[in-house]
Amino acid sequence: MIVAFSVSPLGVGEDVGEYVADAVRVVRDSGLPNRTDAMFTSIEGEWDEVMDVVKRAVAAVEARSGRVSLVLKADIRPGVTDGLTSKVETVERHLAQDTRSS
């Protein structure tokens, strides 16, 4: 399973990077495969372990903010591993074919 999520504090102003870093730190310390970009952090693993990490990441932000926003999207596909890498590699392979046929 891959979960892409975004957690942000509410009511703390525009600069939320410090709070988001607390959440990302939880994800990276989990040892599960993960990626962070400008909008989301994606994490891969089994349902219970991924959801536990998301819960702890939210708690890390909530500890410093009275209100938290969470956006979550999940790709639940039993038996698939290394989806964080393989999904991107598939898209890149198709893009590379486009440039060769031009």
UniProtKB/TrEMBL annotation:
Location of the Thiamine-binding protein domain: 3-92
Family membership:
Belongs to the UPF0045 family.
InterPro entries recorded for this chain? Answer: MTH1187/YkoF-like (IPR029756), Thiamine_BP (IPR002767), UPF0045_domain (IPR051614)
The record lists the organism as: Streptomyces albospinus
Q: What is this protein called?
A: UPF0045 protein
